[in-house]
């Protein structure tokens, strides 16, 4: 397949892997401590598992699967709000597919649908707007979720609804922003990360400049990475090269898609419709200042949060759940107390078990189940 | 068999309205008209024609085909009813034939029970019945009995079909998943995921135009050719819902073996790959309606492959992997990129990813 297969070329991968091994071997580090690189974005986590990249890397490199799965980090209270809106008889609640299974404190959207709520899977907010046009007597609510990647499409849909004067359409806005989240991770006292793979699709919208503080103030290298397996390998190689050469820079491996200045048109639409929230609650990470957006007062009539009185109750993460530590790379998924026992993809306790992009679900599905048994051996080998 | 078709002694009813109404399920003349005009008209055969409450089958005739009866049932609910490469009728006939065929049975008779939502256009119903009849005829299978119910609007999604099939298994054939042994070859007869991708794109809510056509077809001829060429074949299964990934997991679990497949050897057409790339789906989990997975001992694997390649339904056949003695129940795939990953069972259905 054109434009895809060339990024999955095995012989090129072998060359890169040899270079990665040589670089990693030349990086000074304490014996028992691997080089930890966090991929911020869930799309990278997905590629890493889908192509078996983790197993191809030398043992001295550990990939930490970051918070960039918007479905995973949604707190239970917000899912409860979704369900409350969806259960209103006048509402058609529309959502991306993988948000259907996220557990709330009472039920998921999938369960709400089974109980009679009109929940429909859509592929774009424009599809939701089209439903609103076709069902003028119903209230169509779109579940706005995702980082800066999906934010512009929701904003543009709201602007389109405004232009057409469609009054029965609204967005339940749960969009989140990546930069404050990376900052929160960098500020955490137990941080051990040596570098980052930066999110590719978010950066296509916001550009690379917003990450400069990571290099300047936190002295960590970051490479904005594409999603094909060769992209991921090349980006890991670039991070290692920075570490080896003692550089801390924001580099762009995904230049074929990501312009340094981002996408101006998308950013303008986002700025017009949204403003920062004071704080937003994350599953596993707690409340992070300025990490979410809400709709500006001028668009209040398209804001489901204002239109329908949502319960807006904060529900604490389950006590046994260690998603936060996994997200920060302090422990690996299989080291969590409930991984694969109380928490499985069938009945996820923690957010990371929910979406296929969640680190725990990915481990569970693509090879994590035996890690627990092998854990001793791996640790012993590294020591 | 000595059943005199008394169809000749009565006139067939005709439906004169454009859509099915509850009257067509009421047991009276309207129902008789519907059955005559749509189903008897399409399925016409001497076993069905007397319209007894049961089909009467000659046991001696059955016994000529084998020493065991194969008996299976399956319900078909699909949206849309008509899709590129088939319709619910063709699917209902092929699906049940294939469930018989993968057990090594010669498929012989089918029943057909239909639940129709009021408001269904008669022309569409007729088209589907004719499609069932044509598919069965081509496969050499007879639809010998049936039932029709009409339900209120909203009580079913346009139309559901349940087909039950009877076949006979030759004495020397005994296929079982638990017989898979390390070293056995894993074969498929062609491109994977076509049916799932065709139906998803035909639903229209993706706004994706694709040239992908369902692979829906009856497979008993292909299975017979395979078993003739590789008589020690251990097991055959049609990877429908849940796709090849699910079937391989079931085999690995049943036989307490591991299975290793090679992504590079797994035949998937570019259109299906592209479709899956866009939606974040994995083609290994997409449904097939014209494919088999066969487990064949190593000494007969080349003969099995050659037999498939020589059959019109196996021109893209491939040995996609091997049974191994790794962790029991585990299926892994060597990726085109050189890595290895686990191919697990899905929890629910595949949901498209956000971004």
What does this structure look like?
- The complex is a heterodimer of chains A (383) and B (355).
- Chain A has 383 residues and is of the alpha/beta class.
- Chain A has a domain at 76-177 and 261-307: 3-Layer(aba) Sandwich (Rossmann fold).
- Chain A has 16 helices and 13 strands.
- In chain A, the strands form four sheets. A five-stranded parallel β-sheet of chain A has the order 2-1-7-8-9.
- In chain A, helix 7 (151-164) links the parallel strand 5 (139-146) and strand 6 (169-175).
- Chain B has two domains: 12-169, 2-Layer Sandwich (60s Ribosomal Protein L30, Chain: A), CATH 3.30.1330; 177-342, PurM-like C-terminal domain (Phosphoribosyl-aminoimidazole Synthetase, Chain A, domain 2, Alpha-Beta Complex), CATH 3.90.650.10.
- In chain B, helix 1 (29-43) packs parallel to helix 4 (122-139).
- In chain B, the strands form three sheets. A seven-stranded mixed β-sheet of chain B has the order 8-10-7-11-9-12-13. A four-stranded mixed β-sheet of chain B has the order 1-6-4-5. A two-stranded antiparallel ribbon of chain B has the order 2-3.
- Chain B is an alpha+beta fold and 355 residues long.
- Chain A binds chain B through residues 1, 4, 8, 10, 13-14, 43, 46, 49-56, 70-71, 96-101, 110, 121-123, 127, 145-146, 149-150, 201, 229-230, 345-346, 355-357, 364-367, 369-370, and chain B through 205-207, 270, 273-274, 277, 279-280, 282, 327, 332, 335-342, 344, 347-348, 351-355.
């Amino acid at each position: 397949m054109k434009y895809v297969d060339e990024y999955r070329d095995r012989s090129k991968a072998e060359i890169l892997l040899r270079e990665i091994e040589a670089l990693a071997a030349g990086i000074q580090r304490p014996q028992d401590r691997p080089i930890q690189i966090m991929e911020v974005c869930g799309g990278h986590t997905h590629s890493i598992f889908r192509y078996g990249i983790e197993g191809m890397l030398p043992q001295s490199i550990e990939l930490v699967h970051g918070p960039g799965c918007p479905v995973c980090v949604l707190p239970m209270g917000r899912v409860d709000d979704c369900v409350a809106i969806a259960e209103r008889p006048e509402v058609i609640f529309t959502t991306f597919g993988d948000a259907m299974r996220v557990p709330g404190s009472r039920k998921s959207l999938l369960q709400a649908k089974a109980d009679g709520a009109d929940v429909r899977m859509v592929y774009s907010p424009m599809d939701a707007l089209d439903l609103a046009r076709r069902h003028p007597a119903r209230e169509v609510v779109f579940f706005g979720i995702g980082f800066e990647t999906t934010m512009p499409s929701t904003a543009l849909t709201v602007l389109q609804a405004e232009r057409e004067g469609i009054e029965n359409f609204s967005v339940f806005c749960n969009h989140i922003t990546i930069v404050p989240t990376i900052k929160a991770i960098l500020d955490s006292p137990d941080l051990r990360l040596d570098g980052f793979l930066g999110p590719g699709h978010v950066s296509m919208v916001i550009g690379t400049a917003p990450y400069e503080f990571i290099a300047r103030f936190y002295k960590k290298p970051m490479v904005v990475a594409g999603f094909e397996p060769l992209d991921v390998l090349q980006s890991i190689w670039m991070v290692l090269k920075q570490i080896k050469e003692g550089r801390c820079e924001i580099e762009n491996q995904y230049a074929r898609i990501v312009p340094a200045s981002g996408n101006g048109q998308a950013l303008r639409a986002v700025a017009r419709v949204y403003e920062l929230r004071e704080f937003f609650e994350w599953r596993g990470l707690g409340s992070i200042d300025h990490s979410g957006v809400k709709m500006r007062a001028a668009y209040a009539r398209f804001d489901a949060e204002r239109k329908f009185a949502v319960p807006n109750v904060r529900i604490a993460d389950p006590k046994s759940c260690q998603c936060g530590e996994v997200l920060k790379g302090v422990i690996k998924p299989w080291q969590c107390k409930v991984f694969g026992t109380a928490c499985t993809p069938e009945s996820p306790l923690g957010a990371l078990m929910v979406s296929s992009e969640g680190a725990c679900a990915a481990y569970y599905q693509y090879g994590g189940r035996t890690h627990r048994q092998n854990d001793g051996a791996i640790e012993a080998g590294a020591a | 068999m000595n059943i005199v078709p008394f169809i000749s002694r009565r006139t067939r009813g005709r439906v004169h309205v454009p859509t099915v109404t509850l009257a067509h399920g009421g047991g009276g003349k309207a129902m008789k008209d519907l059955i005559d005009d749509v189903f008897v008209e399409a399925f016409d055969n001497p076993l069905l024609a007397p319209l007894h409450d049961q089909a009467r089958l000659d046991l001696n005739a059955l016994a000529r085909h084998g020493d065991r009866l194969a008996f299976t049932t399956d319900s078909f609910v699909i949206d849309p009813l008509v899709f590129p490469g088939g319709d619910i009728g063709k699917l209902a006939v092929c699906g049940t034939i294939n469930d018989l065929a993968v057990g090594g049975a010669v498929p012989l008779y089918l029943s057909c029970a239909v639940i129709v939502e009021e408001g269904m256009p008669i022309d569409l119903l007729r088209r589907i019945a004719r499609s069932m009849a044509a598919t069965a005829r081509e496969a050499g299978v007879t639809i010998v009995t049936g039932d029709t119910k009409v339900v209120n609007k909203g009580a079913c999604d346009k139309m559901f079909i349940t087909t039950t099939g009877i076949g006979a298994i030759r004495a020397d054939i005994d296929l079982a998943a638990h017989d898979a042994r390390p070293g056995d070859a894993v074969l498929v007869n062609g491109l994977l995921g076509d049916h799932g991708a065709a139906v998803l794109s035909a639903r229209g809510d993706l706004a994706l135009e694709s040239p992908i056509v369902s692979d829906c077809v009856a497979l008993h001829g292909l299975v017979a050719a395979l078993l003739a060429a590789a008589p020690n074949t251990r097991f055959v299964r049609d990877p429908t819902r849940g796709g090849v990934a699910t079937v391989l997991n079931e085999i690995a679990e049943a036989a307490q073996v591991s299975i290793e497949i090679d992504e590079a050897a797994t035949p998937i057409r570019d259109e299906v790959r592209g479709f899956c790339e866009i939606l974040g789906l994995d083609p290994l989990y997409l449904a097939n309606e014209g494919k088999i997975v066969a487990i064949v001992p190593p000494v007969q694997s080349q003969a099995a492959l050659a037999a498939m390649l020589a059959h019109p339904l196996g021109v893209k056949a491939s040995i996609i992997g091997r049974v191994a003695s790794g962790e029991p129940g585990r299926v892994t795939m060597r990726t085109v990129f050189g890595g290895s990953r686990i191919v697990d069972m899905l929890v629910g259905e595949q949901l498209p990813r956000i971004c």
